[in-house]
Every structure is written in C-alpha cells, then in structure tokens.
Specification:
- This protein has a six-stranded mixed β-sheet with strand order 5-4-3-6-8-7, with helices on both faces. A two-stranded antiparallel ribbon has the order 1-2. It has a two-stranded antiparallel sheet with strand order 9-10.
- The chain is built from twelve helices and ten strands.
- By secondary structure, the protein is of the alpha/beta class.
- The protein is globular, with a radius of gyration of 20 Å.
- The protein binds iron/sulfur cluster (SF4) and zinc ion (2 copies).
- The site of one zinc ion (ZN) has 8 residues, from helix 1.
Length: 315
Amino acid sequence: MRCSRCRRLAVINLRAHRLALCERHFVQRFLEVVERAIRRYSLMHRSSKVLVAVSGGKDSLALWDALTELGYSADGLYIDLGIEKQDYSRISREKAEAFAEQRGLRLRVFSLKEEYGSAMPELRRGSRELCSVCGIVKRHVMNRVALEGGYEVLATGHNLDDEASVLLANLLRWNTALAARQAPRVEAWHEKLRPKVKPLCLLSERETATYAFVRGIDYVSELECPFSAGATSIAVKEALNRIEEHSPGTKLYFYTQFLKHREIFAGEEEEKAPVRECSSCGFPAGGELCSFCRLLLKSRLGGEKGDNRADSRVG
Ligand code: SF4
Ligand SMILES: [Zn+2]
Ligand SMILES: [Zn+2]
C-alpha cells in the first residue's frame, strides 16, 4: 500500500477517509487534526498553560507529544494510584517518567500513598465500582494539582473511540443528562476547578496507537490495568468497532454530528445543588465533605457504614 500523498510505503490505511499515509504524512495529518479540534471547539489558546493527565498509556502520551510538537506549553501529571496488582502503577509510572525524561518535559508525580496514606484498592469501601472510585480520585487530584500549579486548562487523552462509546452508552440508556454534559471542552463550574479539554476527540484509537508507534513512544496498554476487564465501556467499544468495520467513518460521523446538534439536549443537565466548600479540602462539594474526602474518611474508618452518595459534580 502506498501513501496517497507521496507514494512512499504507507503505515496506515484510513478507510474512513479513503487515505493511506506514510509515516511523515501520517504524523503531519495527526497534528493537523489535533490543531483542528483545538480551534473548532475552542479548547485552549496558544498561550494557555496546560496540564496533561498522563497515565503511561498511548493516548495520554501521544497527546502530550502532539501538544508539545504543536508548540503548546504543556506539563504532565502522573497520578500514582498505588495499584500493586501486576505492578501496574509502578510500570505505568516508569513509562511516563521515561517519556518526560527523553523529551526534557516536566512531569509532576502525585502519589496517593505518599499524600494521603491510602492507595486505590483501599479507597474502595462501600458499594462503589473500583473504576468509579478511581474516577473520583483522578478528578480530585487533577483539579488540586492544576489549581496549585497555576494551570489554566486540564487536558486528557480521550480519543474518538472513547467519546463515541460513552455517547452510545448514554444514548442506549437515554441518559440525556450525561449526554448533555459531554463535550470536547467541559467548562469549570467553580473558581477552584479548571476546564477539561480533549484534543484527541477527532482521532481514533487506531490512529493514536499508530502515532505512538511511529513517534517511538513506549507505553503501557490501558487494558493492562488489572481492574479494567469486563468494563461495560469495552463491550460498547467492541460493538462500535464492528459497525465501523462494516461502515468506515460511522464513529466520526456519530460523534461530530452529535456535537453539531447537541443543543437538542440543552436543559437536560441535572440541577446543581447549592455549591458548598468541603470542610476538609476546601474544594466544591455537594455536602459537608466532597466525594473524595468521603472516600478517604471511609477508608480510614475501615469501611464503616457511611454516606455512599457521591457528589459526581466535583471535577
Ligand atoms: S481501569 Fe484501572 S485505571 Fe482505569 S479507571 Fe478502572 S481502576 Fe482506574
Ligand atoms: Zn507520504
Ligand atoms: Zn474534600
């Protein structure tokens, strides 16, 4: 297969775009699409101070690499969740650190164990799913580090497959409140929070994997997290992949047309309870404590019965 632009050997065939590309033209196009998403959805300014949440996986490292290539000022944040099973946190932390060192970039490492004395598995008290606990922890830490470090925007490596599958999962359940909140840029609703942006939202997982490979990025597979197996999101992604295989371009069309018409979900957002400040950490909370501090408290109390309701709005 030959590159559609220069006839050199192609590294990828993008059926959705009827485009085969060599390494050089693929990287060029990848960066163009990242820049297009940033402009089209007003994700950030050229001068914005950006904090990229890096997991050690391909998407977040590809994003950090691309933003740096495009000339954005971006530091990385690695949250060490303390997942010892299969050495997951240690290995992914090493990948993130090696990436930053090779490129002379600044990586902030935030260790849950060092900061709070608790790691991920111990924080799972009560009935919550581990991945949902993980989400609360990551949101809290990202906001805290962004605020303390003076960052204006938080960037995450969510790609088109992630966004299209979340959208499909929400629509399958007619969860219009969640669909109404889904966007490439989610605005901050409190002065202590920062907007969250997803500059890879127009690029598929296959494209980010190819970009990471071509750019020589050594990463840990997201699926290697020992707790990811069986997640509903994986089943929805697989279903979407089968549709994409049959009709290339479906994922991109589904997601971009949603963004074009998302005003049909306007007004579906959940009513926000009056905002309070968490009495422990000072971040916005729906009650006396924010959901993160409730998790911490419960893990310290050894799982005693407590308020299981989460304030999902935090972050
Ligand atoms: S798969 Fe692992 S890293 Fe991802 S949210 Fe779940 S526990 Fe956290
Ligand atoms: Zn080419
Ligand atoms: Zn708190």
